[in-house]
Amino acid sequence: MFVRKNVVIWLMFVRKNVSLLQIFVQINVAISYKLVQKNVDMKRNVLSKLIDWKNKKNRKPLILNGARQVGKTYILREFGSQCYEKMAYVNCDKNKMLEKIFSQDYNISRILLSLSAILHVNIEPGNTLIIFDEIQESPTVLNSLKYFCEDAPQYHVAVAGSLLGISLHNNTSFPVGKVDMIKMYPMTFDEFLMAIGEQPLVDILATKDFSIIDSLSVRFIDCLRQYYYVGGMPAAVAEFASTKNLEEVRNIQKQILFDYRRDFSKHAPSQEVPRINMVWDSIPAQLAKENKKFIFGALKKGARASEFEIAIQWLLDAGLIYQINRITTPSIPLKFYEEMSVFKLFVLDIGLMGAMSDAPAESVIVADSLFKEYKGAFTELFVLTQLITNDLPIYYYSSNDSRVEIDLVVQKGTTVVPIEIKAEENVHAKSLRTFIGKHQELKGLRLSMMSYQDQGWMENRPLYAVGDWV
């Protein structure tokens, strides 16, 4: 709190004295980093969505969905400890006692009494957060959310699911219309900054005052390099924040990737596992191409889309990849103009893609060529992961002759924003200029390593400020 208040005060009174501000930020960051070393504070932006859910008038049981190991259990426990007097936490994985309670019937009064007894928690409406973790492992508990909604809406129930989409495709009943849904993703760049003790930089980005932001570009770029390597998986971020041990960070990333592969074998249909592995393994190389469109022929000679549809859908349902479809026309709503058969695929986290690619630490943390490597594949993934957490419709555009390609096209409210992503300072927005020339009602956004500029037809923002654009 000391750091945040002081940064705000100095931004008000020392706006013109940038050098003094830089010194002040350096001092406060040193103080905050020492605090973080003792106890890594993993602040997550999704907490505000959870608080909004708690205060909703017509609140329903909540499903917090997302890939494995993105921090769902952690944030629900934080939410419970901060916003409720008590928590009743239950893990549904191989919980025979739980199955016995829910298999009898869906009498909510009896269920709550039984849970109170086994958890030694007096469950009270409004004062207790009931958490069911790994709910995809228990179809009966998932189905009970319908009855919590209809018969006991005064109780606050939140559940976490990692492979929920997979379970639903295995004919698990889903309480349609009886639940609220929030999607959770790996940590964004601003969450990473907070975790490593750089709260002052987050506060400065939030001001959107580019006279100050640009003056600290070296500092921001240094942190961006770190994020490119570490990524947003909470276990990797916590390790980096507390020890700065890059080797151990990579070990954690490799373990997460191993766990994902184990999920392929454990949960996917056996005949689909080889195809899932082929799609998963091919993504870094596909993104390294100049044209990042997903090519099935790169998987194996003569491969057809129909062979890999289930494999791609499985990875999407597990939350491990993002599919960005092409649009033919930049008009509202973009959904009307998407082509389902033409798309790019991205892995869920930039740190994991680095681990999949065996990108060496020195090339990411130190080398000047970082942002040019893999033809900007890391940078495009970085931008996507920062934008996707805002639940915006995101697509890309390419002309039929492939001469004009717009990396991302975002629907922001009633506005369509074409985005060109550049991984360096020497930029030429030829495609973006041509595109805007044909669609003069639009204004482009270029994200690059250049400082902020507004050229009328196009706004340039530094990459590290993309999170505050939304």
Features:
five-stranded parallel sheet; about 475 residues; alpha/beta
Distance between the termini: 25 Å
Roughly what percent helix? Answer: 40-55%
Order of the strands making up the biggest sheet: 7-6-8-9-10-11-13-12
Radius of gyration: 23 Å
Largest beta sheet, briefly? 8 strands, mixed
Low-confidence spans: pLDDT under 50, at least 5 residues? 1-38
Q: How many helices?
A: 20
Q: Report the mean per-residue pLDDT as an integer.
A: 87
Strand count: 13
Beta content comes to 15-25%
Shape: globular
- Structural class comes to alpha/beta
Q: Topology of this structure?
A:
Blueprint: H1 2-13, H2 18-38, H3 46-54, E1 62-65, H4 72-83, E2 86-91, H5 96-104, H6 108-119, E3 128-133, H7 139-151, E4 156-161, H8 164-169, E5 180-183, H9 189-195, H10 199-207, H11 210-213, H12 217-230, H13 234-243, H14 246-267, H15 273-287, H16 305-317, E6 321-327, E7 338-347, H17 350-357, H18 361-365, H19 377-387, E8 394-398, E9 405-412, E10 415-421, H20 430-438, E11 444-448, E12 453-454, E13 458-462
Parallel strand pairs: 1-4, 1-5, 2-3, 3-4, 6-8, 10-11, 11-13
Antiparallel strand pairs: 6-7, 8-9, 9-10, 12-13
